Amino acid sequence: MHAPHPFPTKEKTKKLSLLFVCLGNICRSPAADGIMHKRVEDEGLSDRITIDSAGTYGGHAGGLPDARMRQHAMRRGYELTHRARRVESSDFDRFDMILAMDDSNYDDLMRLAPDVASQKKIVRMVSFCTTTHWDHVPDPYYEGASGFEKVLDILEDACNGLLTEIKNNRL
User: What's the topology of domain 16-169?
Assistant: First the structure.
């Protein structure tokens, strides 16, 4: 397990806001968004945590998540209805934590961040994994069914770890 990340100090009454980011915002980040939404809802924390996702590339803007990811996610009880969008400069002000799916996304976000304080909000999604050991969330776009299942396994683990950290450190 990786070292825990400090969360920004905020008033307990203010919502914690999370932004999941991958390349096109059609596979990994909307899946993380859907998984985390369900986890937060199941824990009764929807009034305390805001969740969204975006991509570093805007070519899929407005589109639904990849049909294969939606299908695999639905089998696990996650409905992915998010519409793809590109990361915007205002996201660095709107979100407390920006979670990158891989090193390329992480590096792109670091370049897009307007200042050092914004860079400190960027973390790797896999740093919250507790049962799987990956250095990134692989892009399943060119993989078969097993690639989508692997990504969902990693994201479920990371979302569970992230929610545990939030509950232990923020609530």
Answer: Rossmann fold (3.40.50)
